[in-house]
UniProtKB/TrEMBL annotation:
This is Diaminopimelate decarboxylase. Gene3D superfamilies: Alanine racemase, Lyase, Ornithine Decarboxylase, Chain A, domain 1. NCBIfam families: lysA. It comes from Streptomyces viridochromogenes. The keyword Lyase applies. Residues 1-20 are annotated as: Disordered. GO terms for molecular function: diaminopimelate decarboxylase activity; pyridoxal phosphate binding. Homodimer. Specifically catalyzes the decarboxylation of meso-diaminopimelate (meso-DAP) to L-lysine. Keywords: Amino-acid biosynthesis, Decarboxylase, Lyase, Lysine biosynthesis, Pyridoxal phosphate. Pathway: Amino-acid biosynthesis; L-lysine biosynthesis via DAP pathway; L-lysine from DL-2,6-diaminopimelate: step 1/1. Its EC number is 4.1.1.20. The gene is lysA. The modification N6-(pyridoxal phosphate)lysine is found at K96.
Length: 463
C-alpha cells in the first residue's frame, strides 16, 4: 500500500472546525509518558515497543484489535498504591475496571486485596487463588445465591447497600451458622467530578443508604442488632475520574461524623472506614493525575484530623482504586482501514474495532488520544476522528485527534489508557468478536484473555 498523503481533509489550525482539541502537537511522533504505559518507547526504526516487544510483532502474532497490557507497569502501580498506604491500611483493587485470573495473581503477589461486585467477579477471584478473606463483595442488588456463595467462601467483607440487604445477609449468614463481617455503604451527599463537586446532589442514585434524614444511622442501628452481622465499618464512594481531593475531604468529614454519632449512641467505635475508589488518570496530555503517595497522604491526613477533632481512634482506612491501577497500563492496538477525508471537516479513520471494545467515548463522551505506532511520520498533522466498524454513527473511539496526513490503510495506530473499563465493558455488538488481552513483560507476550471466536458466539446461540 503506497503511503501517499490524502488529497483533502483539514490540516491547519486556522481552518479547523470546532471540536474537543487544542492545537496540533509540535511532534506527532512523541509519546507523552503521562498517557502511555511505563515501558512504551519507540525503537530505532520508529516502531513503538512495549515490554521490549514491538507492536508489529504483537499485531502479527496476536492480531488486531488487541488490548496490550504492560505487566511491569501494572505491578509497579499496584505496588505504589500498596506502599503509599502502608501496613495500617488496605488497598482493594476494583475488579470492575478489568479482571482476569492473571490480574488476580499479580494483585495477590503484590499484597493487594480485591473488590468484586458480581458472582462472576467473585468466581474469577476465587478460581485464581485470591484468599477469600481479602475479598470485598459489593453491589446494589446482590442475589441470594451470590450472597450465599460469598459467605460460604468466607469473603472478608460484604458491603451492605440497602435496608433489605442488611436483613438478607444477616439471615443467610445465620442459616450458614456464620457471622459475616460487613460495612454499610452510605451516600454522603457529595457528587465528585473531575474538578468540582456538587454537594447534596448525589443522594438521587441507586447506590448506598443516604446519610441525610438519619437513614444511615438507622441502618447502623439495625445492623448492630443482628447476630449474623459483624459491623466493621462505613463505606463511601463518591464518583469516578476525580482529580480534586476536596470531594474526599467532605466525604471523610461526614463519614467520621457518623462514626462519632455511632460512638455516642451505641458506645461502639467502628474500626474501619472505606473511602472507595475514583481517582483519575490521564487520558490525554491535558489531565494531571495525582501520585498514589500524594493521595494516601491527603486521605490519611483528612481522616486523622477529623477523628482527632471527634476524639475517635483513627479507624483503619481502605481504598478501592480500579482505573488508577489498570487504566494507564494498557493500550488498544488497531489496524487502520478505510480513511475518509471530509473537506472542511475532518478525516474519518476507521479501525477494525470500535464501540464494542471501547464504549466509553459513546457512553461518557470520554476523551482519548491516539498515535501512529507502526512507524514515525514527518507528514503534516491531520485532524482525525477515529471510528469503529459498527453500524452506528456514534461508534467513535477518539473524537478529535491529530494523526499524520500520510496515514494509510494497514498502518497500526494505538489508543492509550484503555486498561480500565474497556475490555470489562466490551460487547458483541454486530457480532464483532471481543479482542484479547495480551500481557507483555520483559520481551515476552502472553495472552491472558484470548480473542473471542465465531465458535464462541455460536456456542451460546443454541438454535
Ligand atoms: N469502589 C466502588 C464502590 C465503585 O463503585 C467503583 C467504581 C470503584 C471502587 C472503582 O472506581 P475507579 O477507581 O475505577 O474509578 N464505567 C465507568 C466507571 C464506573 C465506575 C463504577 N464504580 C467508566 O468507564 O468511567
Amino acid at each position: 500500500m503506497s503511503r501517499s498523503a490524502h488529497p483533502a481533509g483539514p490540516r491547519h489550525a486556522d481552518v479547523l472546525p470546532e471540536g474537543h482539541y487544542s492545537a496540533p502537537p509540535a511532534d506527532l511522533n512523541t509519546l507523552d509518558p503521562k498517557v502511555w504505559a511505563q515501558t512504551v518507547a519507540r525503537d530505532a526504526d520508529g516502531v513503538v515497543t512495549v515490554g521490549g516487544i514491538d507492536v508489529k510483532t504483537l499485531a502479527e502474532q496476536h492480531g488486531t484489535p488487541s488490548y496490550i497490557l504492560d505487566e511491569a507497569d501494572f505491578r509497579a502501580r499496584a505496588r505504589a498504591w500498596r506502599g503509599a498506604f502502608g501496613a495500617d491500611a488496605d488497598v482493594f483493587y476494583a475488579g470492575k475496571a478489568f479482571l482476569s485470573r492473571a490480574v488476580v495473581r499479580w494483585l495477590h503477589e503484590e499484597g493487594l486485596n480485591l473488590d468484586v461486585c458480581s458472582g462472576g467477579e467473585l468466581a474469577t477471584a476465587l478460581s485464581a487463588g485470591m484468599p477469600a478473606d481479602r475479598i470485598a463483595f459489593h453491589g446494589n442488588n446482590k442475589s441470594v445465591e451470590e450472597i450465599r456463595r460469598a459467605i460460604e467462601a468466607g469473603v472478608g467483607r460484604i458491603v451492605l447497600d440497602s435496608f433489605q440487604e442488611i436483613v438478607r445477609v444477616a439471615h443467610i449468614a445465620q442459616e450458614l451458622g456464620k457471622r459475616q463481617r460487613v460495612q454499610i455503604r452510605i451516600t454522603v451527599g457529595v457528587e465528585a467530578h473531575t474538578h468540582e463537586f456538587i454537594a447534596t446532589a448525589h443522594e438521587d442514585q441507586k447506590f448506598g443508604i443516604p446519610l441525610a434524614g438519619g437513614q444511615a444511622a438507622e441502618a447502623v442501628r439495625r445492623a448492630l442488632r443482628l447476630d449474623g452481622l459483624e459491623l466493621i465499618g462505613i463505606h463511601s464512594h463518591i464518583g469516578s475520574q476525580i482529580f480534586d481531593m476536596s470531594g474526599f475531604e467532605v466525604a471523610a468529614h461526614r463519614v467520621v461524623g457518623l462514626l462519632k454519632d455511632i460512638r455516642d449512641e451505641h458506645g461502639v467505635e467502628l474500626p474501619e472506614i472505606d473511602l472507595g475508589g475514583g481517582l483519575g488518570i490521564a487520558y490525554t496530555s491535558d489531565d494531571d493525575p495525582r501520585e498514589p503517595h500524594e493521595i494516601a497522604k491527603a486521605l490519611t491526613e483528612i481522616v486523622t484530623r477529623e477523628c482527632e477533632a471527634a476524639r475517635l481512634r483513627t479507624p483503619r482506612i481502605s481504598v478501592e482504586p480500579g482505573r488508577a491501577i489498570v487504566g494507564p497500563t494498557a493500550f488498544t492496538l488497531y489496524e487502520v482501514g478505510t480513511i475518509k477525508p471530509l473537506d472542511g471537516l475532518r478525516t474519518y479513520v476507521s479501525v477494525d474495532g470500535g464501540m464494542s471494545d471501547n464504549i466509553r467515548t459513546a457512553l461518557y463522551d470520554a476523551e482519548y488520544s491516539v498515535a501512529l505506532v507502526s512507524r514515525t511520520s514527518d507528514a503534516e498533522p491531520m485532524l482525525a476522528r477515529v471510528v469503529g466498524k459498527h453500524c452506528e454513527s456514534g461508534d467513535i473511539v477518539v473524537k478529535d485527534a491529530f494523526l499524520p496526513a500520510d496515514l494509510a490503510p494497514g498502518d497500526l495506530i494505538a489508543v492509550p489508557a484503555t486498561g480500565a473499563y474497556c475490555r470489562s465493558m466490551a460487547s458483541n455488538y454486530n457480532h464483532v468478536l471481543r479482542p484479547p488481552v495480551v500481557a507483555v513483560n520483559d520481551g515476552e507476550a502472553r495472552v491472558i484473555v484470548r480473542r473471542e471466536t465465531e465458535e464462541d458466539l455460536l456456542r451460546l446461540d443454541v438454535g
